[in-house]
Design goal:
heterodimer, A: about 325 residues, alpha+beta, 60s Ribosomal Protein L30, Chain: A, Phosphoribosyl-aminoimidazole Synthetase, Chain A, domain 2, seven-stranded mixed sheet, four-stranded mixed sheet, 8 helices, 13 strands, about 25% strand, globular, B: about 350 residues, alpha/beta, Rossmann fold, 3 domains, six-stranded mixed sheet, five-stranded parallel sheet, 15 helices, about 40% helix
């Protein structure tokens, strides 16, 4: 079966799509009222975030657009010091999309939501004519209960910077899944909800700032943080975990792993005193086994990387998507 | 790591105390290693590592890129080229911003597959770069190409542009680090003229930081002894005579001619075009492509910067109207261009 324009008409076909596909997978009681809006339990202070997902291809090693759309929003809430609770999901579907593909995406969203302990509680579906979108786009909005307010303003010189694991895998996996290069590797996207890894860190007083290192990569996160905090940072290249195969592909194409996207890695800034405990806690979780202290916040402006050979390289915001070099 | 420290210490002890030295690389990959590993920060203050005209993206003529953009807009054409060519700006935009049907390849043989899979289209491979990319393009032609595959060539020659550099009396280059990849094709002998005829120490180097530092040490030893020689610290890859088979293939399909270097102008015998008998493969002939006049940007001194005569900071446009997001001259175009590097690292 294929998605037809009628599936977005608001009529019988839409109803069938919702009942037979979405509700089948999104088994959350709040959603089943099928009302215009859903009533939720309130919190004293909530965090809200929204993000649209347009990744191509929609299935890639280590994940798919559905897993990404839930993980990404869960992670944005988590790194803001909140516990993710509810998510909405809006779909823009291309006429002609195979139902089997849609179902794979939807079931992957449901699985990821269960894993992350969040409920999908509202949604919308639109169908656009063939060629007007590439298979499907998803927007998710998430709300969570704020437990610990984090901010670049809390960051001070001497604080340590931790990354929760190896960087660059998502970027490489997407590049290779697009068949842009003839390389065979086992690099998989790191796409994963990080709340079970990061929420336990909320108890640390010295936890000051977290961000998931998505587009722009690790370097962009640290540069943005330093600029917001009016401070600088010094990172140590040899402390930054990068898988050997990612390193190899980066060398070959002239990519810099520090600027490649991740979908399951967080940058964490913590006081020096609590860094050891935070690191230990991270490493005790399967998603944080390779967590590492990669540098420190400094008083002078600019973010620098101490390279493996001992040189200093200034890190800047990512200008444009990385492209392979000629030679 | 100890070896690196040892080399850096040697560089500091060998560096002349009383004068400035300008060591020029003419290879995008050397420049990549230098900036990526932060080698400039390890040098004594009076040793400058300057990038010459080694960034293939920067020196590709605007006319060739505009022709590529226009070809990609034709319904019957698919344009294929290397990744970093896609964003090189021209007065009509870049291939990525203004082009139509284009795709990225990482090696010439990939276009063969594209041509075979799209028999109803004309596939044009925009072949850009130095000897290192010419050789695989020649190998592609040698394999035999389908009727719907054409080559838009913008190939340039490294030893030839270096000779232009040293022939100019104003150029204050004290030594060359010669490019390892190019040397693998042309052979280390190709650089002999520089120490011999012009008294410039020249060392062929590879791309690991350690190897580049070793090349700098060798250069400093030569300067200390008042000698100018050709040395090769990339012997595992570079032979004196180079890769004969690659050279034969290149000159089977291409001939040396005057080509336009962006920001520098036409330089006799500094590039390659397809030979007359392969005109049926030559996109310039098949599609009757015009030579588009390159308008010099008033105030831009890229031609002097590329030749090592001036610094980016000498240019009135630098950091004011000319930035990596809005480059006016070729040296600001790619991460390997001198102005772009100065912009980001100074």
């Amino acid at each position: 079966m294929k998605v037809e324009i009628g599936h977005g008409s608001g009529g019988r076909l839409t109803r069938e799509l919702i009942e037979e596909l979405f509700l089948k997978h999104f088994d959350f009681s709040e959603l089943h009222t099928l009302s215009d809006a859903t009533y939720l339990q309130g919190f004293e202070k909530i965090a809200i975030t929204t993000d649209s997902y347009v990744v191509q291809p929609i299935f890639f090693p280590g994940g798919d657009i559905g897993k990404l759309s839930v993980s990404g929003t869960v992670n944005d809430l988590t790194v803001s010091g909140s516990i993710p609770n509810y998510i909405t999901a809006s779909f823009i579907l291309e006429e002609g999309l195979d139902f089997s593909e849609l179902e794979r995406v939807v079931s992957s969203m449901a699985k990821t939501a269960k894993e992350a302990g969040v409920k999908i509680v509202a949604g919308d579906t639109k169908v656009v004519e063939r060629g007007k979108c590439d298979k499907l786009y998803i927007n998710t909005t998430g709300v969570g209960r704020v437990v610990k307010e984090l901010s670049p303003k809390l960051v001070e010189p001497g604080d340590l910077i931790i990354v929760s694991g190896s960087v660059g895998e998502h970027g490489i996996s997407i590049s290779l899944a697009r068949e842009e290069f003839e390389v065979e590797t086992e690099v998989k996207s790191d796409c994963a909800p990080l709340n079970s890894l990061l929420v336990p860190l909320f108890k640390y007083e010295g936890l000051k700032f977290m961000r998931d290192a998505t587009r722009g990569g690790l370097a962009t996160v640290v540069v943005e943080l330093a600029s917001c905090a009016n401070l600088g940072a010094l990172l140590y290249e040899e402390k930054i975990p990068v898988r050997e195969d990612v390193k190899f592909i980066c060398d070959m194409l002239g990519y810099d792993p520090l600027y490649l996207a991740n979908e399951g890695k967080a940058v964490i800034v913590v006081s020096k005193e609590e860094a050891d405990s935070v690191l230990k806690e991270l490493r005790s979780h399967p998603l944080g086994k390779e967590a590492s202290v990669i540098g420190e916040i400094t008083g002078q402006s600019g973010v620098f990387l101490k390279t493996k050979v001992g040189g200093l390289r200034r890190l800047e915001l990512l200008d444009e998507d990385p492209l392979p070099r000629i030679c | 790591m100890d070896r690196i420290r040892e080399l850096v210490n040697l560089i500091h002890s060998l560096a002349p105390k009383d004068k400035k030295l300008k060591i020029m690389n003419v290879c995008g990959s050397h420049e990549h290693t230098i900036t990526y590993s932060g080698l400039r920060s390890l040098m004594p203050k009076n040793i400058e590592l300057v990038p010459g005209p080694g960034c293939p993206v920067c020196v590709c003529s605007e006319s060739d890129i505009i022709n590529a953009i226009n070809l990609s807009k034709r319904d019957d054409v698919i344009l294929a080229t290397y990744g970093d060519m896609l964003r090189v700006p021209t007065k009509v935009g870049s291939i990525r911003s203004s082009g139509g049907n284009y795709l990225m390849v990482s090696a010439p043989h990939e276009v063969l597959k594209v041509a075979l899979e799209n028999p109803q289209k004309k596939v044009v491979f925009f072949s850009v770069g130095f000897e290192t990319t010419t050789a695989p393009t020649a190998a592609l032609l040698e394999m035999g190409v389908p009727d719907n595959l054409f080559i838009l060539t913008s190939q340039k020659l490294t030893p030839e542009i270096m000779e232009v550099l040293v022939n100019d009396s104003e150029v204050g280059v004290d030594a060359f680090v010669a490019p390892g990849h190019v040397s693998a094709i042309v052979g280390s002998k190709a650089w002999e003229i520089f120490p011999k005829n012009y008294g410039i120490p020249t060392v062929v180097a590879g791309f690991e930081p350690e190897n580049l530092l070793l090349a700098i040490v060798k250069i400093l030893y030569q300067i200390k002894k008042g000698k100018a020689e050709l040395e090769n610290v990339y012997k595992g890859v570079v032979k004196p005579e180079g890769n004969r088979r690659a050279q034969e293939l290149i000159y089977k399909y291409f001939y040396k001619t005057s080509v336009n270097w962006r920001g520098i102008g036409y330089i006799p015998d500094s590039g390659l075009e397809l030979k007359e008998e392969y005109g049926y493969l030559d996109a310039k002939k098949v599609f009757n492509l015009p030579e588009i006049k390159e308008e010099k940007v008033p105030g831009c001194i890229c031609h002097e910067i590329v030749l090592g005569k001036s610094y980016p900071t000498d240019c009135k446009l630098f950091k004011k109207v000319c930035t990596p997001r809005n480059p006016k001259g070729p040296c600001m175009v790619s991460h390997e261009g001198a102005c772009n590097i100065w912009y980001r690292f100074s």
